[in-house]
Amino acid sequence: MKLLIEHCDLLDPRAPRTRSARADQSILVDGMRITAIGDAADIAMQAQNQPGLQVIDGRHHLAIPGLISAHTHSPENFLRGAVERDPLEPWLVWLYGTCGQHTARDHYLAAAMSAIEMLLSGCTGSLDHLWHGGPWSYDILDSTMQAYRDSGIRATVAPMFDDHDYVLDAGDALGHDLRASVYGIAHGADDAARRAVLLDNLDIFDDWMTDWQGEANGRLQTFLGPGAGQLVTAECLRMTLDLARKHGAGMHMHCVETRVQDYCIRRAHEGRTVIQWMYDEGVLGPDVTLPHSVWIRSEADLDHLAKTGAIPVHNPAANLKLGSGLMALREMLDHGITVAIGVDGACSNDNQNMFESVKLAALAHNLKSYDPKTWISAKEAVDAATVGGAAAMLLKGEVGVLQAGKLADIVLLDEHSPVLSPMNDAYNMLAYCGGSAAVKHVIVNGEHVVKDGRIITFDAAAIAQEFRERVDHFPFRHEIDDRTKKDVKICYAFWWDVMNRVSNGE
Ligand SMILES: [Zn+2]
Fold first, then answer.
1. CATH code of the domain containing 35
2. Pairing of strands 311-314, 288-291
């Protein structure tokens, strides 16, 4: 498709702050890429006599690179607004006890709903750390990819798996019977049995990656998503990286989201932090993304991240909701570490709106110090959601910026929308003003996906209707069973025990 966006304002880091945009610009797109970008008069000359050229009137619109969410869990779309006031560990027990089984069609619907909300709120790329409440099968993965293919969003899917749970080991040592709980039953089989499952899963993933990596003109990617640092052995991570790198893919793994996780990992690895342990095992690199990374504090760990190029993913909404803490974002940026931003799943956020997550990333850190020099700037937050997200998707220099030769992932925001009126400094407006309400057009990989505020790739209303009809099928919609209630209590006893220990310096 050939596309001309005429007479828009263009977000430009080189433009003076007070505006941060250049006026009366045009963008020419041919196929998947931006072929020319600049003053409208110059681009009009280049676009002359091009057959089949589709024109978008960009007057009073700001063109920005599409935002990229570098961490979510699409199945949680069924669970938005379902829970409150629990920290992560008891929240997980509730989730395990009540989330039920998703069919392949449920996964399609949940991923499609994620894509719909993201596209309509100016997000062109999503990294989906996919979970499934049961054994993996090819059709579940296939169905999720089909949803992203049909939606038109750029998507990377990283299915979750694990092979040894150090939280359960800590529970055993401290005298809490997590192992018999719904959480423990999902994670606690003996190592030989878990290894067999791991090998089976890697076989399924290998086939799926062969079929889907780079599909839809490179718009779809398949990563591997070990569950979390407290859930895997070093051997599991090495096998994961071998398979990911065979397919030119990345590894995406939750990393010290909570103090409990940090405690359990240090206990399991002779006092080493997860980053020290991963560094020692040689499993950090620029193709490794680490959502949350909340409890990374030491100079040594920050240096390891900077040196290896591994990318922490900030999820401020989930971290606030579950009370997990706030990552050392200022320190990470000051160490030259690339950081991305993710919305996280809708059970811990509870939406898929990147503008909101960018705003939280830009503001929440102000509470940590009264020194404004340590606060996060609007441009730093927007860069994390664009340039940082591109690096997380292994698309550094391909998306996240609007320049000739780059892939055309473009969002046009209506400056006549109340949230963007009057248009002052563009970076400040993007970080603080809630730009999702102003999204008018979205282009992904050169394709027009949202036109005049409506998705044109598939029937979003029909998908939303089917999605709503499925929800009563899940146990969390009904009275919580006694077993889950009891297991949440057991987990809380463990959680308080560990939190008291870490508060006392353990
Ligand atoms: Zn997550």
1. 3.20.20.140
2. parallel
